[in-house]
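User: hey, got a sec? need Outer membrane protein TolC folded
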Amino acid sequence: MTHSKFLKAFCLGVLVTTSSMVQSNPLTLNGVVEYALTHEPWLQANKYQQEAIEAQSIAAGTLPDPVLTVGLMNLPTDGFAFDQEGMTQFKVGLSQQFSRGDSLALQQQALRQSAEQYPWQRADRQAQVKAIVTEAWLNAYRAQQSIQLINQDKALFNQLIDITEASYANSLGTTRQQDIIRAQLELTRLEDKLVMLEQQFDSAKKRLAQWLPIDMLSGPVSSDNGDVAALMPYQNMQPTGVTEVLMGHPAVVAIEHALRAKSTQIEVAKEAYKPQFGMNVGYGYRDDTPMGSSRADLFSIGVSVDLPLFTDNRQDQQVNAAIASAEAVKTTKLITLQKLQGQYFKELSQLSRLAQRRALYVEQLLPQMAEQAEATLNAYTNDDGDFSEVMRARISELNAKIDALNIDIDTQITLARLNYYAAAKDSQINAAHSQGAHHE
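Assistant: Yep! Here you go:
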């Protein structure tokens, strides 16, 4: 075997070493998601909003406070003597207004129904956060694994450059200067790609800074991507089953509770057609006459009632406004359902295409690329091939590996997005919702 062939054959025995990052405190997918859901401030703010509405519902069902009046009546101005005139009296009165029909009970019910939407809003937010955080973590994982794949082949390219430079310097074999330049060029391109991937890695991790403290983001992500589990067999579901699942989505259920509150508000508005009653009682104390004769004290009682006779510009319009507001919420529910359905089928189509591509890569492209790279390297080792073909085959194989990785990650991201639309089936979110719902 010639010295050239020996140098070339040496590259066949190169052990590809994976550049490993420091694995101190790696960010796992489950750990990141759990931390984000536990420390999401939006959820706490939403709980406070619910508590505020619940407190308002208690206040809304209470009659207005009675009114106490105290007065000195009919005091004569020619002497300001309390016992001078028989009409002079010290009067204490108490009045109370009552609600129109069942308006208080209905208003209380409407607010209570409105408060019931908040646990579902939190469940929707949890599902959103879970999908967003999962996608950000997977993008960081994608960049990290791509860096490792490139570093694996980078070691081989460095070996090839050393071999070609040694062969060219000794004028052995068929090595040409352009082979060295080509190898160095490809290595420079890999360096540029590594810088780009490092940027993507940092960007994906910084995306998590909305939910995680910045000191948790200094290390790598876990090398185990913890495959995203599908909440439902998406590709086997019938359209009717999809509609049923989406009808139970927290975002839709939250709107349904808001709609119930709006429907009750219509009944509240209709109560304005009924009269409002009030009651008052009074006690008047009178002093004795100047001659010492006793005067009787006075007691009074009365009932007041307002008569809603002219309803065109007030009661009718209030009912119309309540009806229009309820119809607007109905439309919002329809729009939300249509949006969820459209996005669901878009992601489902994406999942099907990714599955087709993954099968193509695993069964054909990756094995064929590996065979091609091995064949060109063997030919070059035996002085029967072109170095540029070796480089081209190795670059193609590397790109195919990265493409296969991207397909796997895109599949996981698509599943995470689909899981958002199947949030009604997420036991983790449902458990959190059950703990946070006070009136379910």
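Quick note: Strands lie at 67-73, 89-97, 276-285, 298-306. Let me know if you need anything else on Outer membrane protein TolC.
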